[in-house]
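A quick aside before the break. I want you to see a complete sequence-to-structure record at least once, exactly as it would be stored in a machine-readable document. Don't worry about memorizing anything.
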Amino acid sequence: MRGFSPFVNLYAVVFLVGGAAWSAWRYRNAGPEHRGRVVGNALIAVGAILPGIGGSFTRAGYVEVLYVTELVGILLIWWGYSTIASDRSRSIHSNQELTIERSSD
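That is the input. The structure line, written in tokens, reads:
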């Protein structure tokens, strides 16, 4: 099972961290009015990578680092989500616009 774990974790990192970083990059290129979405996605990407870094320290014998990185990571993810949720700029993704319009009815 331990041999399979890195592949699952790598898959999660690629999609969660990579997706948030890619989204931040796309919003960055969309203009300055999307600054909140850029910052929020960057916070989510950093927050998502921290538990993995803590896990690496745990394997090296520093178990306490995992708890700190998990706490800081979840706080950064929450902060990123809150930043994106409070941003009132229009989304660059058409499917998100439809969801927002339907929920406001």
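Two observations worth writing down. Residues 5-30 form the longest helix (26 residues). DSSP finds four helices and no strands in the chain. We'll return to this after the break.
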